Amino acid sequence: MNTNEIEVGSVVTGIYKTGKYIGEVTAIRPQHYLVKVKAVVKHPTQGDLHNPKQVDVPLFHERRALACHEQTNIPKNMVHVYNGEIPSYQDSLKTALDDMKLSLEKDNSEWAKRCLENIYVLEKDYFKN
User: Fold this and answer.
1) 56-75: per-residue pLDDT in tens?
2) The CATH number of domain 3-126, selected from 2.40.110.10, 2.30.30.430, 3.40.50.2000, 2.30.40.10
3) Do residues 93 and 126 lie in contact, with contact meaning Cβ atoms separated by under 8 Å?
């Protein structure tokens, strides 16, 4: 199935800002697909998207993953059909966060340290129980 065959109800992966998600297409728009989030593949990168890997920026953003069942417009070129198993949202979020932490812990830069601070705060919020 190519991009032209994506229809309402298709299960897809989509990249939104710096996060990657598995979701279901709920509407087709001229430039975007409206995607309802089912799982997280890659957690969004922390910091300023316009100044990647920089710490000395006016606002070092805490970037949360899109929530389960949250709907977002994703540009059509960032959406692809997904044929695998869909993990639970919570399990996928934990895996994506763990993957990001592992990667950042190997990086000694100030940017990585600042990202980890954000990730630890997000982790406490995501998994309160």
Assistant:
1) 888 899 999 999 999 999 99
2) 2.30.30.430
3) yes
